[in-house]
Amino acid sequence: MRTKYKRVLLKLSGESLMGEQGYGIDTKRLGEYATQIKEIASQGVQVAIVIGGGNIFRGLSGASKGFDRVKGDQMGMLATVINSLALSSALEAVGQPAKVFTAINMFPVGEHYSKWKAIEALNNGAVSIIAGGTGNPFFTTDTGSALRGIEVEADVMLKGTRVDGIYTADPEKDPTATKFTEITYDEVYTRGLKVMDLTATALCKENNLPIVVFDMDTPGNLAKVIAGEPIGTLVY
Hints:
By secondary structure, the chain is of the alpha/beta class. It has helices at 27-41, 59-64, 69-93, 115-123, 141-151, 185-190, 198-206, 221-226; strands at residues 7-12, 46-51, 98-102, 111-112, 127-131, 156-161, 182-183, 211-215, 233-235.
């Protein structure tokens, strides 16, 4: 099967790992994700992954409850490490090699991230899961995924969400919202669409990293995006 992309950076939200639970990690959802990722990896696509930590802890909401923002963000980084370990375990359970890299040194939990080690793992057929965001407070995992996507020289950032693309408004709240098939980075910014935070969008624009926003929660969708089917929304 022909694939449109050779190397991708897959961004998963922590919330999506909750599945139906409302908190923590849903093993059924984790298994579905692992199966979808293995499916594209077995076609020869190199997959690097960044996962958020919102299903466990969010630094920003922690700060609103009285946590120090830097400590709150560090707690959020640790949440992404937990999710990354869970996903690597699920991948290995379905026979897909995976390696966890961490932005901050956390040996032996994961190997300290470097571009070259992550690419080496990709070239050897493993999925590179890059945890800990950027390793710095005040940066989201969206920015972390933009940065890592650029560093590992991915062809595209695939942002797996609960919705099937970018809409003029929140489709869960506004029934008149219409979906974009493609949109420019500038238009995302001028329309104030909440695709990613501004830092992440600016990084992708400056480095010509296109983004595809799609519904990852429907099994089979990841393979469709890789095959170039027009599902989701392309940001360029």
